Amino acid sequence: MVVIKRIGVLSAAKINGIIMLVLGLVIGVFYGVLMMFAGLFSGSKTTFFIGLVLLFLAPFLYGLMGFLGGAAGAFIYNVAVKHVGGIELEIKKR
After folding, report:
1. What is the pLDDT of residue 94?
2. Which residue from 11, 19, 23, 90 puts its CA 20 to 30 A from 44's CA?
3. Can you tell me the distance from the alpha carbon of 84 to that of 34, in angstroms, rounded to the nearest whole number?
């Protein structure tokens, strides 16, 4: 049994930020294009513009929130592990 005693805050923040950035890219493209088409078909320039902004802003915002969430999660884990113990992992070598 191996116990995780500490998680690197910056390390967790970076990986979580990248994962969420990719998710934000997928969501941003999907909803951005959807809103742009809705704006084109309805004649609403505002809806089209919001879709265009969402296309570029969603990945950045998702990445930022993922970075902050990853840092917060790792920090909370590091504080909690002192009181309740770490997560136990069973690792099998090949």
Report:
1. 85
2. 23
3. 47
